[in-house]
Amino acid sequence: MLIEKLPQTLDQQTQATRRIWMRIATNLTFWVLIAIIAGVLLGSIAPAIAVKMEIIGKTFIDIIKLFIAPIIFLTIVLGISGMGDLKKVGRIGIKSLIYFEVVSTFSLAIGIGMAVLFKPGNIDKANLQIQNASKYTSSPEKGFDWVHFFMNNLTIQVLLVAIIVGIVLNYSKHRKKAVVGLEYLSKKVFLGLKYVMYLAPLGAFGGMAYTIGKFGLHTLIPLAKLMGTVYLTMGLFIFIVLGGIMRYYKMSIWKFIKYIKEELLLVLGTSSSESALPSIMQKLEKMGCSKSVVGLVIPTGYSFNLDGTSIYLSMSIIFLAQLYGVHLSIWEMLSIIGILMVTSKGAAGVTGSGFIVLASTLAAIHKIPIEGLAFLLGVDKFMSEARALTNIIGNGVATIVVAQSEREFHPQKESDVRSDVNQKNSVIKKELVY
Description:
disordered C terminus, single chain, mainly alpha
């Protein structure tokens, strides 16, 4: 009997081991993590080759950007036409903007408070590397231009057009036929996105290899205190502020972060929260947020709810003030928050816009040398990961909050989630077999 049972036990163990390796081999998160590690190693060992990998990361982000406009358009139009109640659409929009302004202002204040507390700018300027910041400081006096912001922000443009189309479709007699066609198109777009996401490890590898190869880990040492303060502040903001908001709605920030781990790793590798915009919308819908809330809150949040960027901007200004020995009074710090409440909204959608916003804010203060931006350029790329990660988590939490407040949050039962996971694993196995 013992001899007969032993081969069966060994066979079961072998099958269990195979199942574990099958899960790992088909897990996108695993491959993105491997790609990030490979990018760091290549950037450290062969910087010249690593810099050439930029084209891979950029190409992946450019492909993802092709999906952003149709996904936002389809999600919003279907959400509004399916909701029926246009007053509710307006209420969701107003709630979202109020939430964004309150939380963004709070993040600005936290950034200033932590910079004042830890004083990351109390270091010797002579040891810092100076980069060329002339393209950001040549015309800072222009300040923030809402027309320019709208004309250069595709997300806001698509959002506005989609809202108009959704409202018009609501009153059309051909609404049902149009909705059926748009739902079919939406499924095809998301199917295309699913296949493109298989390239995510390549995008993460290219982005990380370029960053390490171009700027090098050695550039972090002189500004290690600033880097540490920024990451600490954003960590506290995520787990205390956003975590507190989630706890109010009887939800866990840890579970939410675990749920969107694939998107977070992708953002970490590419240094761009845009790379995960389409998939985070899909994830939030699966989580239980209604299509209409996701469609309205996420695209608007990517332009008006940049918590990580707000923290970085406010900390950078205090850092430069400390670096040049400029004393700022309480009223001047409050005025910085007031100015950044407006100018920080222009830090979305345009590469390098964060420095343009910093330059225009410094010009408005008239106390801190704008040339100080040259000291930040060397480590900005390494801090962009923290900004992007905080931005995407902040927008995810905002969507859940608005959905909860509007009773538009209907989480799946655990049995349904398990069924979805089993179905997904079955599809993956079939694809591997064929």
